[in-house]
Write a structure and sequence with these properties.
- The protein is 36% helix and 22% strand.
- By secondary structure, the chain is of the alpha/beta class.
- A six-stranded mixed sheet has the order 6-7-8-3-9-10, sandwiched between helices.
- A hairpin with a 2-residue loop joins strand 4 and strand 5.
- The longest helix is centred in the last third of the chain and has 29 residues.
- Bound molecules: adenosine-5'-diphosphate (ADP).
Amino acid sequence: MNKAANGKIEIVNAGKIYDPAGIHVVAVENCSFNLEAGQFVSVVGPSGCGKSTLLNTIAGFDTITSGEILMDGELLASPEIQTPPGPDRVVVFQGGALFPWKTVSENIIYGPVIQKNMERPEAEKMAISLLNRVGLTKVETKYPSELSSGVQRRVEILRALINQPKIMMLDEPFRALDAVAKSVMHNFLLELFDENPRTMFFITHDLDEAIYLSDLVVVMTTRPAKVKKIIKIDLPRPRRLDVIKTEIYRNIKADLLSIVHEEALKAFKAGEREMA
Ligand code: ADP
């Protein structure tokens, strides 16, 4: 597969008000940060702070009501512009969504074949090569129900990757997995990323996951979402699990924890006020 030549995302003063004339929910306000091409960026912050709204806007499922989002210098989203979803910006959702009636191989090739971006034989060859490369041999003819949930997640990620997107967006993709399956997924994702770096927009509540995987961790404020802090993760790549034992890792974690804790408290208090 080609290396990602681009995929830079610039979020510039983005804002989102849901239902401006009615309940008027200010989900995102003056939010600015960049994802450099080929950078792994995790976004953390209290629930309901607008993380998915940003992801959905980049993906083309939603709009912003102020500001701009650019991809490789071109306007992707503004109050006037919504770029429809496309294979250059793919999303892996938390719940997953493999077609149960299709085999693994048919699931992986479905997008590019239906969009006529690849001929079926070429797509099938690539699907098998992707599966083999990550050690998933002899599963191409299996149905999703025959696979563990961890393997299903891996297939979903390959299904996204076959599009050779400029940016891959993952919204808490491993939330439902146990610690062991999660750790397998992390190494799987890191292997794919190291081999073929592309811009990643990764939403999570798991701070260890954010640090272990990312180049940058963006901490959002409680709603309306702005950037509270951007933490650069200066850990070597390829990442190895024993990095979590290092002092630098522990310091990053302590720093991140105190920032997130401060925001969580604010969110909690805001919630109490709303309920009072
Ligand atoms: P997060 O992903 O950080 O949990 P979201 O982006 O899903 O947050 O939501 C941000 C805020 O916008 C939340 O308060 C949510 O209730 C609100 N919101 C999301 N979608 C809608 C909608 N369609 N209409 C009204 N409010 C919405």
